Amino acid sequence: MLLLSIDTSTRGCSVSLHHDAGLLADYELYTDRSSSAMLTTLISSTVEHSGFKLQDLDAVVIAKGPGSYTGLRVGVSTAKGLCYALDKPLIAINTLEAMALQVSPFFSKDFLFCSMIDARRMEVYASVFNSDLDIIEPTKAVILQEDSFENILKSNKVVFFGDGAAKCKPLFEQNPNAFFISTEIRPSAKTVGMLGIKAFEKGVFEDIVTFEPYYLKDFMAPPTRKATPAV
């Protein structure tokens, strides 16, 4: 099994290569517009430096979102293009679930894990999982308030993380059941690939023709500036 995984959910991009459940290579680049400018270069470098060719891949795994509209569009378009060209299946993984996999192994079974991606202002994309990555709260856009996540915080210890967690820390940090990670947790192709392995073994593939990123919200283009008429 040789799986190429791609994540462009937020600022930057990452690419990883797994072979028979083992990680061979992992490249991450977190600079502005790196997904559009460097993604194909990272993909070719990851595969070639590992001693393989693109034709050797068994499947392509993509982080489907939620996240940046532009980033997701670039990542999914690239993944679908590879699958078309190579005649390989496409696997899609929820970005927030892959983030939870980065954190859950470091806590005991009695914790819940809330992955958060910044969605501007006081809004975040969030989902809550248990230690087995079962969904406790489905993925949704949340406008953060003091009573957000009140129900699960009443009786559960919850770890909040991701670039959206900084917004809720002032609201929840006095709650003894709310925990925050000082280390920045970013979406990563590494854990996207780990979940992709399980999906590949179960034969869970996407329809390449109809598959679309999980945008969660409609794209809102910024207003255009009207040109100042010449005098």
From TrEMBL:
The keyword Electron transport does not apply. GO terms for cellular component: cytosol. InterPro entries: ATPase_NBD, Gcp-like_dom, T6A_TsaB. SUPFAM superfamilies: Actin-like ATPase domain. Gene3D superfamilies: 3.30.420.40. GO terms for biological process: tRNA threonylcarbamoyladenosine modification. GO terms for molecular function: transferase activity. It comes from the Bacteria. Keywords: Transferase. The keyword Transferase applies. Residues 32-199 form the Gcp-like domain. NCBIfam families: T6A_YeaZ. This is tRNA (Adenosine(37)-N6)-threonylcarbamoyltransferase complex dimerization subunit type 1 TsaB. It comes from Dyadobacter frigoris.
